[in-house]
Amino acid sequence: MRILVTGSSKLAGAIADRFKSDTARVEQDIDFRNYDIFINNAHVDFEQVYLFDKCIKAWNRDHSKQIINISSRAGLPNLSKGLVYGAQKAALDHMSDNVVYNSDKLCKVTTINLGMLEDELPSLKYSEVCDLIQFIISLPKHLEIPRIHFQHVHNYQHIQLLKKQRYRNA
Fold first, then answer.
1. Is 39 helix (H, G, I), strand (E, B) or coil?
2. What pLDDT is stored for residue 168 in this prediction?
3. Fewest CB within 10 A of the end CB: N or C in the chain?
4. DSSP alpha helices (H): ranges in 69-155?
């Protein structure tokens, strides 16, 4: 099973290390025929949407393939103060939902909406995200999780207040 992950972030590195996967930058011309699982992680403007589209066009009729989009809870309406970032993640979520529910695709598609990662405030660890990806990959072939929100259990509004205080004191 060959896995490709996009990006050069610490999360991409953790995923690549855990799954012994190949990595690619979004500007590279990716030949999806060489892979079985694509972890669409690199956030560069709207490039995740374009990469997802390219991959789904290559894999949509192949039930043995799997796409995992790494998105963010910031894509939820009225949540993120990062307006453009939230819109980019919402576009990825919308495209994924359209593929899952409005197409005849056969490959598996999952979008993971992550909360805050690896921070001194309550947050997810990269290893926990990798554990979730492992779970998704290990599901029986006939099961799919189209979208999942994954975050630390700590209250979101309280974390936002702590972040605001931290930035005021910096």
1. strand
2. 82
3. C
4. 83-102, 126-138
pTM: 0.94
Domains present along the chain, CATH in parentheses: 3-169 (3.40.50.720)
Reported for 166-170, long-range contacts at CB under 8 A and 24+ positions apart, including other chains, are 166/121
pLDDT in tens, 104-124: 999 999 999 999 999 999 999
Above 90 in pLDDT, residue 169? Answer: no
168's enclosing H/E stretch is helix 156-169
Asked if 78 and 48 touch (Cβ cutoff 8 Å), the reply is no
Q: Compute the distance between CA of residue 129 and CA of residue 16 in angstroms, rounded to an integer.
A: 12
Q: Are 112 and 120 in contact (CB under 8 A)?
A: no
CA-to-CA separations, 116 to 25, 110, 113, 148, in angstroms, rounded: 23, 19, 10, 15
Q: Which residues of 141-153 are buried (b: 16+ CB within 10 A; e: fewer)?
A: eeeeeeeeeebbe
